[in-house]
Amino acid sequence: MKCISTLVLAVALAIPVRAQIIERVLVKVNGDIITQTELEERQTAAIRARMGADLKPEMVNNSEELKKAVDEVTPQLLVDAIDELLLLQMGKEKGYHLSDDQFKAWLENLRKEQNLTDDQKFQAALKQEGMTVDDLRKNVEKQFLVGQVQRDEVGSKLSITEEEARQYYLTHKNEFAEPATVTLREILIEVPSTTKGGQATISVAKQDEADAQAAALRTRLLAGEDFAKVAAEASAAPSKANGGLIGPINILEVSVSLQELIGKMKPGEITQPLRTNKGVQLLKLETIKPAAIQPFESVRDVVADKVHDARQQTEVRKFLARMRGQALIEWKNDELKKMYEKQVALDPAGGVH
């Protein structure tokens, strides 16, 4: 494919730095341009996202394999690039812009989420991505304008009826299922270990003592002593402060062996002493709540949001198709034009993904 140099893309994938090249215009959209560099950046990002950890050096060096991947991702990337440009143009026409305060708040939130509050770490992360703060702001501003146009031109004009929400709920009930949960109480008898030669070892005598202590505690519990009081007295687990209480927890989040054990128990029953990597444990089944579908009334707002999002995606695609039809698109590369037109024909209402 002549729309991109495979060698250039291979270098971009192998070494994430920006090369200074002479810009070549690929297409004009209402007078604004999309360059080869912009397309190559999108192709590189798409191939990285697609292959992820599977992207190996030999794949980068294999021009045929890389060319095939480029051919597969490029048609949709062209549609996305033009759609994004059309939305940005409309956003600018309407006077939308990202204020300094909005960007500052966004950046502070990002740095907290990514644990980059330290300036040195943040600058190192930017350098690794080959970006500056100005580059970052430009990207955020693009996302802001695109989102604002979609919300104002499409999302704000949608209204969801009660009947639509109910119909969605009835046909997607599994989306509103509450998982089975279990509430337990625990007592942990810790078995200390020693490290020698990089390996942790447990004294057989200490293990036997813990087994015996757990068995004695279980006998007391079966005789009627309160589990919470015994846990507060004897447990080494942090839950002792709450009488050994753990949960409610999603039953699918516990080990398969524990799921099987709980499945055979009734509320109030206490397990035999169980050996764990921390010691010996006793568990009491407090309650188990089976999976259940939440009633419509309790998830009405969630359902309405889901219907709204689904409708908005459809309407945004239609909106973009209309914008494309009204735009002046001048191609400078016939091969790219054919790829674009073929992709649009396959999905005439296709939009930014």
Provide tags for this entry.
353 residues, alpha+beta, 4-stranded antiparallel β-sheet, 3-stranded antiparallel β-sheet, 13 helices, 15% strand
Question: Spans with pLDDT under 50 lasting ≥5 residues?
Answer: 1-8, 10-21
Biggest sheet descriptor: 4 strands, antiparallel
Approximate helicity band: 40-55%
Strands, count? 11
> Mean of residue pLDDT?
85
C-alpha Rg (nearest Å)? 30 Å
Instruction: Please trace the helix and strand order, writing H or E for each element.
Output: HEEHHHHHHHEEEEHHEHEEEHEH
Order of strands, main sheet, comes to 7-4-9-8
* Structural class by helix and strand composition: alpha+beta
Tally of helical segments: 13
| Shape annotation | elongated
Question: Which helices and strands appear, and what pairs or packs with what?
Answer:
Blueprint: H1 6-14, E1 25-29, E2 32-35, H2 36-51, H3 57-61, H4 63-93, H5 100-113, H6 119-128, H7 133-153, H8 162-171, E3 177-178, E4 181-190, E5 193-196, E6 199-202, H9 204-222, H10 227-234, E7 245-250, H11 256-263, E8 274-275, E9 279-289, E10 292-293, H12 300-326, E11 329-331, H13 334-346
Helix pairs in contact: 1-2, 2-4, 4-7, 4-13, 8-12
